[in-house]
Design brief:
With 206 residues, this protein is of the alpha/beta class. 50% of the residues lie in helices and 16% in strands. The chain has nine helices and eight strands. The strands form two sheets. It has a five-stranded parallel sheet, sandwiched between helices. A three-stranded antiparallel sheet has the order 6-5-7. A hairpin with a 5-residue loop joins strand 5 and strand 6. The chain is globular and about 40 Å long. The mean pLDDT is 95. The structure holds adenosine monophosphate (AMP). The site of adenosine monophosphate has 17 residues, from helix 2 and helix 3.
């Protein structure tokens, strides 16, 4: 089963997808994580993506679609794939259709005020990529690594990322709803409750 995660930055897509991949043996593709790794390693793709990521803009579709197609071709697991952060607009969703069937789209809904609060206090582990709040301290709760604030989690970029989300990504909710494969979950609750709802919906759909 292939599942697309939808929701604004900070809604909890990454947190839920990582957990689901670990517990239910899905492959997890996070386009944001891939770009950050490419950037860290100064690869040509990372260099091309840098200016867009820094501003909170979307990286051009052809770069993203080719990158995802390469990852999909490399996947060994046949139990399915979780796409986190992709597709981000209608063109990407349509490009994906020819490559991999989408069985379900899970939309994690969180109000914008809460999103702004979450993103501005979000910290990322330098070592394992775990996401946590600034209130949790300077050390990763999962691996003990050092945490930092992503440049694009700083206030000026957050507002642009939310504009991009509202204009380009939000239409995907209706797109998957029209296909009859959208499941909406209230993401304003604690991580465990959101996770239980997602697992129940997947089992029902299986
Ligand atoms: P994320 O970690 O998913 O919030 O992604 C961080 C940044 O990577 C985004 O703000 C974009 O600049 C870029 N990015 C990630 N996924 C995509 C995508 N599917 N299409 C275009 N740009 C993307």
């Amino acid at each position: 089963m292939n599942i697309v995660f939808l929701g604004s930055p900070g809604a909890g897509k990454g947190t839920q997808a990582v957990r689901l991949a670990e517990k239910e043996n899905f492959s997890h593709i996070s386009t944001g994580d891939i770009f950050r790794a490419e950037l860290k390693n100064n690869t040509p793709l990372g260099m091309k993506a840098k200016e867009y990521i820094e501003k909170g803009e979307l990286v051009p579709d052809e770069l993203v679609v080719n990158m995802v197609a390469t990852r999909l071709a490399e996947l060994e697991s046949n139990s399915g794939c979780l796409l986190d952060g992709f597709p981000r607009n209608l063109a990407q969703a349509k490009a994906m259709e020819g490559k991999i069937p989408t069985d379900m789209a899970i939309f994690i809904h969180v109000d914008e005020d809460e999103i702004i609060k979450r993103l501005s206090s979000r910290r990322t582990c330098k070592h394992c990529g775990n996401l946590q709040s600034a209130d949790d301290g300077a050390v990763c709760k999962k691996c003990g690594g050092e945490v930092y604030q992503r440049d694009d989690d700083k206030e000026e970029v957050i507002m642009n990322r939310l504009d991009v989300y509202n204009e380009q990504t939000k239409p995907l909710i209706k797109y998957y709803e029209d296909k009859g494969i959208l499941f909406t979950v209230d993401g304003a609750r604690n991580v465990d409750d959101v996770y239980s709802d997602i697992v129940a919906a997947i089992k029902k759909n299986d």
